[in-house]
Design brief:
Layout lengths: L19 E3 L5 E4 L20 E6 L12 E6 L10 E2 L23 E3 L15 E9 L4 E10 L6 E5 L3 E8 L2 E5 L2 E5 L4 E4 L4 E5 L5 E9 L23 E3 L11 E7 L2 E7 L6 E6 L4 E3 L3 E4 L6 E8 L2 E3 L16 E9 L13 E4 L9 H9 L7 E3 L2 E8 L4 E2 L1 H4 L10 H4 L15
Parallel strand pairs: 9-17
Antiparallel strand pairs: 1-16, 2-19, 3-4, 4-19, 5-18, 6-25, 7-8, 7-28, 8-15, 9-14, 10-13, 10-15, 11-12, 11-14, 13-20, 17-18, 21-22, 22-27, 23-26, 24-25, 24-27
């Protein structure tokens, strides 16, 4: 159990540095005041310090132990203490959680977007969020949505709660300071944060304007990929996932607003206190941050509802091998983003903050310049270091539908297809076979 106090804060009220707990899927406990956690039971008649016990469940009560996700929060006032929810006015209009012919389109064409402009008028994380594509339905508890965000304003006297699914946030420009019911997270470009379904959170922008990507999954939660052939020590180490320690706000906050995403629509409710009034908590359902791979599996082994993978700096050393990603058609659909630097398979046109979508069985691969530059180096090319880069991919077994504002976006690259048109035939009938 971690009862370490939060460090000094700066003028914004956010800690200058943060301590974290660690461990993916662990059962963790934290208290901001020693003795705030009840001993020996979850819901005593009278909790320490007169706190309220409240459970948040990420799975059904009857889920098997190895799948069951829930945490107990010990708070100054329970979260139920609010006025009735009302549709948010003005509405948002660009958030989708059920994809069908009435609100989105299908296309097998390869798509690419240039980086979106940062907003000029005051825009917080909620208003700066918009859906690009997705599949399935939050109502049916199966599917995903991919969003992007561009914001320049800290969330003020309000918190966001996503009742539809988990958010995986990938900042591309500008750090995020995220306050959650379990504590605080610093999230920088190159890191990711996962905010599970139902948790309330607020986003501060310490660097000013910020933009990035968000993957949302309906009906299941992110987990570590199975190790399989890579062995016991491959991929992500559970201890490297960082979890907040307890932190709380007390006192009156008249007019504080909870914004709840529910079925893709936004609703608001007023209350007179901060939702971040949790003095202690324990459980295995909590926000966290990391910088590597996660998956949301389906019932079919090895097939993901959504995978998150990164393409970091690395050495490429394979001999007599075409080293960039090869040309392929995939039964999965691939949405890519770029945090910084370049991407080895796209010499031109793919910029940090941009994105591409290659849907199920749509062919894709290196552009002409990348291909020609690679084969020109020949078989004797030595080891090569790919540096100053960080790309990522959201990959899904579902076929995404694209939102109309994404297809009509001024940042859509209409000439994307031309990056392959320069590929010429290298076929030489009668030439000898390649020999290593």
């Amino acid at each position: 159990m971690d009862s370490k106090p939060v460090s000094k804060t700066d003028s914004s009220g956010f800690p200058q540095d943060l301590s974290y707990q660690s461990g993916f899927g662990n059962h963790l406990a934290s208290e901001a005041i020693p003795g705030a956690l009840p001993e020996g039971q979850n819901s005593p008649l009278i909790c320490p310090y007169g706190l309220y016990a409240e459970q948040i469940s990420g799975t059904s009560f009857t889920s098997p132990r190895k799948l069951n996700l829930r945490s107990w929060l010990y708070r100054i006032k329970p979260s139920v203490t609010h006025e009735p929810f009302k549709p948010r006015a003005p509405g948002h209009g660009k958030l989708v959680s059920e994809f069908n012919q009435s609100n989105s389109s299908l296309t097998p064409t390869q798509l690419r977007w240039k980086p979106a402009d940062l907003p000029h008028s005051p825009t917080d994380f909620i208003d700066g969020l918009y859906t690009v594509c997705g599949a399935g339905s939050s109502f049916l508890r199966h599917g995903f949505a991919i969003h992007m965000y561009a914001a320049n304003k800290t969330m003020d006297s309000c918190a966001f709660c996503n009742a539809d699914g988990d958010f995986l946030i990938v900042p591309q420009e500008g750090r995020l300071w995220i306050t959650t019911e379990c504590g605080k997270l610093h999230v920088s470009p190159g890191e990711i944060a996962v905010l599970p379904q139902g948790f309330r959170f607020a986003v501060d922008l310490p660097d000013g304007p910020s933009r990035g990507y968000v993957a949302e999954v309906f009906g299941n939660h992110f987990q570590l990929p199975d190790l399989g052939l890579i062995g016991a020590n491959g991929l992500a180490a559970p201890r490297d996932f960082l979890v907040p320690i307890a932190w709380f706000e007390d006192g009156s906050c008249p007019g504080y607003t909870i914004v709840q995403k529910f079925g893709g629509e936004l609703f608001t409710a007023r209350q007179d206190f901060s939702p971040f009034n949790v003095v202690a908590w324990h459980g295995n359902y909590f926000p966290y941050k990391y910088d590597l791979v996660l998956t949301v599996p389906t019932e079919k082994p090895g097939v993901a509802l959504l995978d998150f993978v990164i393409f970091p700096p690395r050495w490429v050393v394979a001999e007599h091998t075409f080293r960039p990603p090869y040309y392929h058609r995939n039964c999965m659909s691939e949405f890519m983003g770029l945090i910084h630097g370049g991407y080895e398979a796209k010499a031109d046109g793919f910029f940090p903050g941009g994105a591409s979508l290659h849907s199920c069985m749509s062919p894709h691969g290196p552009d002409t310049k990348s291909y020609e530059g690679t084969i020109a180096r020949g078989n004797e090319a030595g080891p090569c270091r790919i540096a100053d880069t960080m790309a990522f991919m959201f990959e899904s077994s579902l076929i995404p539908r694209i939102c109309p504002w994404a297809l009509d976006s001024p940042f859509m690259d209409p000439d994307y297809y031309q990056c392959w048109l320069g590929l010429r035939s290298h076929f030489k009938p009668g030439s000898s076979r390649h020999k290593s």
